[in-house]
């Protein structure tokens, strides 16, 4: 896959040019791009095996180090009319038989590559083939579950017809007995040479999918739903060798050393119950466009800042691939010890083979890749890419040449032991997210004498290249930095052509520079927190608790305690606390170019038309404002985001958003005590509370300064800036009198002392 990284090229395994020259060229390109379009230049890079595997290869291989080189020459041997080739088997003289679907035919291909129809069954699929004792061919069909014996002339007779619907695999022992793996009940049949069949073993699986015989005469069975490998002795006693996490064991193969290899895939039943591979692709859902949202927080809310990383232009660690694997290959020794050799989230293994050196060859879908496992520890090399979606079956002819059958479409290919003289690679479509100006393309590699590497590009505005795209450019000459000549567009694709003899050239990395059109930043939202709510920086210890102060408190201390104990308050902003007179402003702004942003914070009072600067060019998206420096009133703030850190001054763009209205009030209410008298054993206190800006929120009284009780206005509800109260206290007031405490809607507090009537006279 080509990934976007805001950096210059790196890595030069065997590179012909020095890193200093490459960096200098990249710097010149970056400066030229900035002068043209004024946004941070970005780069598409292909540097690893995972990057290169996202593209299309033809006669090229990709090793585990991410090196692109000439692969084995691939020859099309025979092309059938069937869409699927499911099974193959080879006679000693090199004749190949191929079982197909969806017409249930068997084709014969002679050693010279001439093919013809050999047998046409009345069923749809031929998933199983085996050589019959004494000559001829055994053909297992589905979905009617029949086994035919076909002689050398193509004349067929019904050999065995079990109750099951599917014949998935056939194998014969040295005595002429045939074992058949079936579904949908997972039964294995043993069929004598005369066609008499008996149940040999009933698996506890839906399907018995693969068979093999070891040198001791044990039958190895792969199952589906679930995917297990069983070893069954000649007496029918089974032992589970492998209980895989996959749904199906698709193939079992022994190497020359007697080691068993199993290909496991994640699949599900298709129409008619046929197990089929089910590739799944993670499609990221584009974030819907959102309108800017100015907000004023009405309560203490929790907020957190999450660093997701891995985005376009990020230099951080790529996000973990959380997709489930599609398949794996296991190696099982004779003593039952197994190892997982290979696993893939992109490719499902259908069959296994071995090269002359004993290396494992894996045929996969759904992109028709052929891998070879080599090295210590074993690592995959992309050996070849078929012009089909699935590589379904391997077979060797009498000369040891490896053939592979494919599906979608159904073809038979042969791999040569010699490297192809020419190979091509086409990258995946590189998405600049918007119409972009292309910079330079550069590459690293080695070109021995008589070989060469050529790169080409094309561009377009559709995700899939079509006839609306530009034609391929002429070959670029300078590997250090060649200006891309393709027209401006959103998408770019590059092609590499490698030619040579023997080992040939090796391509190790490709980098393409581009510059997005500078887009205006957007301020998405503004949150104005309640007055006094602030956030301590992370790892701050906060204020210490005070010994001996448990029962005494003030409104400010109560607010601070409530803020610090609010669930979720310890997010990325730190622990909440309360500081009178401070106003916390938090906003969210982003830039589609991933430019760095700075922010201006402006404010105005209701009724004013001119914005005043509060702070200029701050990089963070949070500001604490000391509102005790301004008059009480209704205010608005404006956030202006600028991408000036990433663009020249003449072309930087800004985006802005106004907040909703919020109140600033740092003046406490006024308490006016009126009449204080004793009537029928109670002390009656009449008083008024006024505030010049905020409604009265709470009224309390205390006779000892510790226990406070609420008082309600005469009209029963505190909701205006002026309230009248009549307080009745049982008994007469002591020498201390009592204390009144009023709080307004902005947490401003006022107190007043009421003397007993005797002291007021």
What attributes characterize this protein structure?
mainly beta; 11-stranded antiparallel beta sheet; 5-stranded antiparallel beta sheet; 5% helix; disordered N terminus
Task: Put the structure in a nutshell.
The chain has 761 residues and is mainly beta. It is built from four helices and 59 strands. The strands form 14 sheets. Strands 1, 2, 3, 4, 5, 37, 38, 39, 40, 41 and 42 form an eleven-stranded antiparallel beta sheet that branches. Strands 47, 48, 50, 51 and 52 form a five-stranded antiparallel beta sheet that branches.
Q: Could you explain the architecture of this structure?
A:
The protein is mainly beta and 761 residues long. It contains four helices and 59 strands. The strands form 14 sheets. Strands 1, 2, 3, 4, 5, 37, 38, 39, 40, 41 and 42 form an eleven-stranded antiparallel beta sheet that branches. Strands 47, 48, 50, 51 and 52 form a five-stranded antiparallel beta sheet that branches. Strands 6-36-35-34 form a four-stranded antiparallel beta sheet, with no helix packed on it. A hairpin with a 5-residue loop joins strand 15 (166-172) and strand 16. The radius of gyration is 39 Å and the shape is elongated. Mean pLDDT is 84; it is low at 1-32, 268-291, 296-318, 546-551 and 566-571.
């Amino acid at each position: 896959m080509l990934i976007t990284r805001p950096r210059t090229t790196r890595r030069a395994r065997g590179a012909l040019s020095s890193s200093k020259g490459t960096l200098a060229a990249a710097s010149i390109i970056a400066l030229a791009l900035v002068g043209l379009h004024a946004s941070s230049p970005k780069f598409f890079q292909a540097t690893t095996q995972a990057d290169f595997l996202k593209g299309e290869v033809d006669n090229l291989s990709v090793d585990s180090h991410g090196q692109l080189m000439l692969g084995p020459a691939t020859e099309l041997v025979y092309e059938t009319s069937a869409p699927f080739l499911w099974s193959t088997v080879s006679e000693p003289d090199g004749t190949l038989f191929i079982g197909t679907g969806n017409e249930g035919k068997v084709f014969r291909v002679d050693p010279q590559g001439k093919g013809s129809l050999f047998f046409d069954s009345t069923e749809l699929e031929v998933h199983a083939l085996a050589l019959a004792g004494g000559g001829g061919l055994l053909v297992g069909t589905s979905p009617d579950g029949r086994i035919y014996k076909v002689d050398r002339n193509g004349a067929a007779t019904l050999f065995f017809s079990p109750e099951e619907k599917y014949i998935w695999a056939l194998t014969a022992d040295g005595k002429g007995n045939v074992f058949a793996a079936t579904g949908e009940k997972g039964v294995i049949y043993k069929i004598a040479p005369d066609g008499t069949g008996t149940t040999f073993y009933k698996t506890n699986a839906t399907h018995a999918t693969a068979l093999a015989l070891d040198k001791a005469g044990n039958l190895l069975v792969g199952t589906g739903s679930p995917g297990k490998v069983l070893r069954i002795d000649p007496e029918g006693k089974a032992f589970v060798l492998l209980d895989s996490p996959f749904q199906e064991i698709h193939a079992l193969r022994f190497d020359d050393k007697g080691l068993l290899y199993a290909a496991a895939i994640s699949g599900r039943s298709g129409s008619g119950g046929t197990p089929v591979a089910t590739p799944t692709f993670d499609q990221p859902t584009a974030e819907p466009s959102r309108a800017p949202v100015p907000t004023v927080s009405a309560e203490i809310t929790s907020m957190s800042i999450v660093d997701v990383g891995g985005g376009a232009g990020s230099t951080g660690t790529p996000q973990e691939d959380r997709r489930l694997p599609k398949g794996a290959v296991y190696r099982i020794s004779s003593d039952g010890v197994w190892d997982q050799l290979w696993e893939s989230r992109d490719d499902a293994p259908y069959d296994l083979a071995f090269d002359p050196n004993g290396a494992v060859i894996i045929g996969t879908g759904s992109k028709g890749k052929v891998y070879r496992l080599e090295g210590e520890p074993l690592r995959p090399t992309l050996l070849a890419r078929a012009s089909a979606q699935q590589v379904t079956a391997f077979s060797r002819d009498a000369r040891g040449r490896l053939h592979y059958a494919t599906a979608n479409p159904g073809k038979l290919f042969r791999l040569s032991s010699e490297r192809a003289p020419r190979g091509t690679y086409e990258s995946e479509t590189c998405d600049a997210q918007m119409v972009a100006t292309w910079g330079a393309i550069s590459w690293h590699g080695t070109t021995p004498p008589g070989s060469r590497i050529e790169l080409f590009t094309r561009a377009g505005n559709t995700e899939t290249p079509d006839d609306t795209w530009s034609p391929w450019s002429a070959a670029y000459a300078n590997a250090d930095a060649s200006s891309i000549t393709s027209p401006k567009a959103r998408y770019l694709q590059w092609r590499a052509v490698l030619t040579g003899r023997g080992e040939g050239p090796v391509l190790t990395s490709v980098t393409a520079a581009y510059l997005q059109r500078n887009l205006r930043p957007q301020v998405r939202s503004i949150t104005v927190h309640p007055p006094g709510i602030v956030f301590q920086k992370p790892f701050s210890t906060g204020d210490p608790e005070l010994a001996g102060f448990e029962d005494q408190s003030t409104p400010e201390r109560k607010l601070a305690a409530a803020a610090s104990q609010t669930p979720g308050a310890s997010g990325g902003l730190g622990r909440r606390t309360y500081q009178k007179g401070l106003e916390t402003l938090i906003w969210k702004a982003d830039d589609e170019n991933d430019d760095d942003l700075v922010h201006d914070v402006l404010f105005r009072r209701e009724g004013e038309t001119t914005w005043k600067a509060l702070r200029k060019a701050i990089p963070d998206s949070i500001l604490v404002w000391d509102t005790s420096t301004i008059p009480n009133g209704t205010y608005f703030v404006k956030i202006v985001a600028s991408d000036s850190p990433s663009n020249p001054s003449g072309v930087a763009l800004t985006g802005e958003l106004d907040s909703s209205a919020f109140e600033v009030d740092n003046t406490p209410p006024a308490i006016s005590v009126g009449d204080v008298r004793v009537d029928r054993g109670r002390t009656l206190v009449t008083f008024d509370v006024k505030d010049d800006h905020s409604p009265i929120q709470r009224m309390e009284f205390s006779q000892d300064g510790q226990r406070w009780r609420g008082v309600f206005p005469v009209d029963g509800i505190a909701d205006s800036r002026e309230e009248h109260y009549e307080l009745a206290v049982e008994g007469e007031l002591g020498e201390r009198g009592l204390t009144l405490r009023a709080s307004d809607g902005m947490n401003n507090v006022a107190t007043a002392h009421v003397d007993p009537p005797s002291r007021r006279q």
